[in-house]
Design a protein that fits this description.
The chain is an alpha/beta fold. It is about 25% helix and about 25% strand. Helix 2 crosses helix 11 and helix 11 packs across helix 12. Strand 26 and strand 27 form a beta hairpin. It folds into 3 domains: about 250 residues, HUPs (Rossmann fold), CATH 3.40.50; about 160 residues, Ribosomal Protein L25, Chain P (Beta Barrel); about 120 residues, Ribosomal Protein L25, Chain P (Beta Barrel), CATH 2.40.240.10. It starts with 9 loop residues before the first helix and ends with a helix.
Length: about 550
């Protein structure tokens, strides 16, 4: 990746200081550790870029590890999607793909060792009593009546839990720390639960599963991680992370927390995104309105734009919400360089060039990308009947409307100057056809006599047009901060934008778009950036709007 190295943030400063002091003997080892219980979103992209990026910048290694400790919510579907997303973003874990389930035997042995050292015990309280016994922020917890079981009794019960003798919830293994600890997470946290559930990798071999807090730090230790980089919500968990490593006397990575990524008009909670999918508010995880990486990919986002955005978002200790327009601007900047230009008319109205021969066709040269001379040019057919956008004509133009109107001359992109001299209405009074004349001397879009026009319109030859469906995607929520509802009992989903998807079924495209294929990124001139959707077929082209040419929402907010 030929990309600018990020400025030195506090995480990179820690890494550089450690390299300078020889703390890890010159080693940098990070990891990206998703739970395979859902699809990754743009927030995960920041963590991916940070963990893999630091490893690349400091000649280290980054593992991909799946923290798969909850068999009831995990699936190989999520594993496969996560692998695809990380690769698509441009990162490679090489042969370092791991699972927490790879370490179940070792984690179990360490749990027995903590029992033998008097640091863990089997608790037989029901879950609600365990929760109640933890106390409050101002009151200490209450010791479990099973806290002082002997080592032998604890080992016997724990082994019988493993052997499947007990029902779910009958017992748990808890760390024996301090029920009066000021940090409530340290009040004898649960290490193992009984779960008679099929695991996506280990099948029914295990019926007890380690909690995330117990498995996570020890998995880092087994892999020799030096810098365990995670988001700020795990700062509260760091004392427990440190306690387990210290109590076992094993390799002790340094946990470092950074600010998570939040965007306006977007929700980032896996639980809420799942709710949107299950309730049918979106068409699956890869719906282009979703902030999931697969949704962004389907919408036409590029990995380069996402990486650039993640670099610009920065790494700090302060959570903040970034305007989604910042992400979109990084995308526009990237697409402006790479996307070839084409003409497409989404709301067509017919234009007849009355002084142009009926059986004639001109081939006009059009530049593919003014930002990239190597993209070359193409030939665009021009004929007597054309399509233009309905909004580009006004029979009684208001002030500052400079496009086509009776008696007015405009430029057709790459073609000719045309002048409107008449139009046709239907029985309802709607304009259905516009009659114009063209000036043959203005071929290519400029007048030899130097006269100027105030508007340039895109167009498509009606005889050569390709029909397509175009899906106009917008923000999924109209509320800038979807979680901030006006009333206490108001549903957060009340902020869903009813206009987040509009489907244009009869778009007219220039013929060069007839060979567009999935993955192609194109700028429809004057309209925005678009990509070919996987729903496309040889019978029906389908395009998704990736992003508008300008931030329309910012424009609307300015008006308000």
């Amino acid at each position: 990746m030929n990309e600018t190295v990020p400025h030195r943030d506090f995480v990179r400063q820690i890494v550089e200081d450690d390299l300078g002091s020889g703390k890890w003997k010159g080693k940098v080892q990070t990891r990206f550790p998703p739970e395979p219980n859902g699809y990754l979103h743009i927030g995960h992209a920041k963590s991916i870029c940070l963990n893999f990026g630091i490893a690349q910048e400091y000649n280290g290694l980054c593992n991909l590890r799946f923290d798969d400790t909850n068999p009831e919510k995990e699936d190989t579907e999520y594993v496969d999607s996560i692998r695809e997303d990380v690769r698509w973003l441009g990162f490679d874990w090489e042969d370092r793909q791991y699972f927490a389930s790879d370490y179940f035997d070792q984690l179990y042995e360490w749990a027995e060792e903590l029992i033998r050292r008097g640091h863990a015990y089997v608790c037989s309280l029901p879950p609600e009593q365990i929760s109640a016994g933890r106390g409050t922020a101002t009151q200490p917890g209450t010791n479990s009546p099973w806290r002082d079981r002997s080592v032998d009794e604890n080992l016997d019960l724990f082994r019988r839990m493993k052997a499947g003798e007990f029902a779910d919830g009958a017992h748990v293994l808890r760390a024996k720390i301090d029920m009066a600890h000021p940090h409530m997470l340290m009040r004898d946290p649960i290490m193992y639960r009984i779960r008679h559930a099929e695991h996506h990798r280990t099948g029914d071999r295990w019926c007890i599963y380690p909690t995330y807090d117990y498995a996570h730090g020890q998995s880092d230790s087994i892999e020799g991680i030096t810098h365990s980089i995670c988001t700020l919500e795990f700062e509260n968990h760091r004392p427990l992370y440190d306690w387990y490593c210290s109590a076992l006397g094993i390799h002790h990575p340094q946990q470092i927390e950074f600010n998570r990524l939040n965007l306006t008009y977007t929700v980032m909670s896996k639980r809420r995104l799942l709710e949107l999918v299950q309730a049918g508010h979106v068409n699956g995880w890869d719906d282009p309105r979703m902030p999931s990486i697969c949704g962004l990919r389907r919408r036409g986002y590029t990995p380069e734009a996402i990486r650039a955005f993640c670099r610009a978002a920065g790494v700090t200790k302060n959570n903040a919400t970034i305007d989604i327009g910042v992400l979109e601007n990084h995308l526009r900047e990237d697409l402006n360089r790479r996307a070839e230009r084409r003409m497409a008319v989404l709301d067509p109205i017919r234009v007849v060039i009355t002084n142009y021969p009926e059986d004639q066709t001109d081939e006009l040269e059009a530049i593919n990308n003014p930002e990239d001379p190597s993209a070359g040019s193409r030939m665009v057919p021009f004929s007597r009947e054309l399509w233009i956008e309905r909004e580009d004509f006004h029979e009684d133009p208001p002030k500052k409307f400079f496009r086509l109107a009776p008696g007015r001359e405009v430029r057709l992109r790459w073609a000719y100057f045309i002048t409107c001299h008449d139009f046709v209405r239907d029985e309802a009074g709607n304009v259905t056809e516009i009659h114009c004349t063209y000036d043959p001397a203005t071929r290519g879009g400029d007048a030899p006599d130097g006269r100027k026009v105030k508007a340039t319109l895109h167009w498509v030859s009606a005889r050569h047009a390709v029909n397509a469906e175009v899906r106009l995607y917008d923000h999924l929520f109209f509320r800038e901060h979807p979680d901030q509802v006006e009333e206490p009992d108001q549903d957060w989903k009340s902020g869903l934008n009813p206009d987040s998807l509009k489907v244009v079924s009869q778009a007219q495209l220039e013929p060069a778009l007839g060979t567009a294929r999935q993955g192609d990124l194109i700028q429809f001139e004057r309209l925005g950036y678009f990509c070919v959707d996987p729903d496309s077929s040889t019978q029906q082209l389908v395009f998704n709007r990736t992003v508008t040419l300008k931030d329309q929402w910012a424009k609307a907010r300015t008006k308000d």
